[in-house]
Amino acid sequence: MRVAGIYCLVAGGWIVLSDRLAVRLFGNTPRFGTISQYKGLFFVAVTALLLYVVLKRRLDSIARSQQALSESESRFASFMDNLPVAAFVRDREGRYVYANPYWIEHFSKGIDWKGTLPEQLFETRSVAKADEAHRRIVAGETLVEHLLHLRIQGVETDWIVRRFPIHMGATGETLVGAFALDVTDRGKLEDRLRQAAKMEAVGLLAGGIAHDFNNLLTVIGGYAQMLERWRGEPAAISRAAAEIRRASDSGALLTGQLLAFSRKQVLQPKPTCLNAVIESSISLLQRLVGERFRLDLRLAPDPVAVLADQNQLEQVLLNLLVNARDAMPSGGVIRISTGSTLLQDAAAAACLGLLPGRYGWLSVADHGHGMDAETQARIFEPFFTTKDRSKGTGLGLSTVYGIVQHSGGAIRVESRPGEGAEFHIYLPAAGSLPASPPASPAPQESRAVQESILLVEDSPAVRAVASQMLKVLGYRVLEAEGGPAALQTLLSAGFPVHLVITDVSMPDWQGPEVLKRLREVQPGLKAIFITGYSAEMAEHPPRERDALVLRKPFTLQSLGEAVRLALEGPAPPPP
């Protein structure tokens, strides 16, 4: 209307000017009369014409805007109706105000959902996480993305939900919009791809480690055959036995690498001092790297306590030193450092794949040939190696990665070509270290009072060597090849059995079942489970939480310590 008013003012001015001009030209009584006599009618006509033109343009503009809005709404509705993603909007209080058909079909089919709250539609465990994300958007965050696990019609599903603010200009209100993408099938596909990769890895594995295993078997078999023929020469026999043991230890290390790669090793995390692990292993590590290398220890002045499995930490350190040694063919200095750090910034912790908190760290640095970015991106892949295949399997760093990840930690590497490499490992900090236990007595070959042990193992070779070890340690040993035989042996023993040592996985009764049956006959029987990998414990979890776990391969020392710990520990509770 502002434009119409301007037009009217212009028209009125034109009428006045026209009247003045007519008077000057024709006088007060022109032949056709004065224009002043008709100026009111002329003004009304011109004004009406101008108003018609302006209003028509305004109405046409409104009509075009309404048509564009209608088309936009139609496009939006068509888009949302066919979107294969759940879309919804909630108000500040969390009530649903909009949902597309995909959301309605999956989450509220046949339910009047408008104005409802999430707790009226979903399980409590899911609502808490969703409401927390909703509150963050209301509080001012511009984007929150999270994973939500939902049970829909009895089926477990996973959704990635992205939430964002919607500012309503007219009312000033802020709504919370969201898209939810079903990633359940993606997870299944990833599982299938991982399985396919593992199947492919089996072929690589056969060729990658056959060389190492054949060397070990050659050493063990060769010295064992010579021991069968030797007569006398105690020193030579001792040297042969030592070589056999070294080969056995190397085989155990290689097996540990494979289990760490598959994440099937038995972990026993407990508060462990990083400095103590390094100091107790330093002589072995120095022999491992050789005389051309010097180990430069830069350990934290105070104990660094982490929650980890000590045996796995030793394997991590061993593999990192082997990697550093191989990076410096001419020798050099390998630096080993420890410390602790507090990751307070969530973003900095997330870059490492960790949560904020306190962590202990271990680093191993060398001055070798270093790595470029492309190599660094692949160094933790199983079977990837820059060495000749005859010099390594490519499992070392993937083993380290598997152990660290399985322990709740993180690993990163800093390296440049020609400038060496430094590996940093972060592990969750432990609250405190336990008091130092008294030194374990060395295994003795005789005991004043013999204690009886029932050994249940289906492998004849393992049963024979374990039985011989226990006899060397001074125990009376009863043997059984399985659960039924163990029960019969216990019933007919004629004397009390103080401890049962049983394998976890056997053809008839599994270890927990064996222990249950035996305790029905002799309540309070103490027990040790022996196992080679954690999958057995997951598949056949022991219900008797007081039973110790001993990992294969075990040594005379570790077996003796486990037996004493079990026998001197508290009696199991009654069933």
What does this structure look like?
The protein is 47% helix and 20% strand. The chain has 575 residues and is α/β, with parallel strands linked by helices. The strands form four sheets. It has a five-stranded antiparallel β-sheet.
Q: How many angstroms separate the termini?
A: 93 Å
Q: How many β-strands, per DSSP?
A: 17
Q: Helices and strands: which structural class? A: alpha/beta
What is the assigned CATH homologous superfamily of the largest domain?
Histidine kinase-like ATPase, C-terminal domain
Total individual domains? 5
- Estimated share of beta-strand residues: 15-25%
| Strand arrangement in the largest pleated sheet | 2-1-5-4-3
Helix share bin: 40-55%
Query: Taking Cα atoms only, what radius of gyration do you get, to the nearest Å?
Result: 41 Å
How many separate helices?
16
The CATH class of the largest domain, by name, is Alpha Beta
The 3D shape can be described as elongated
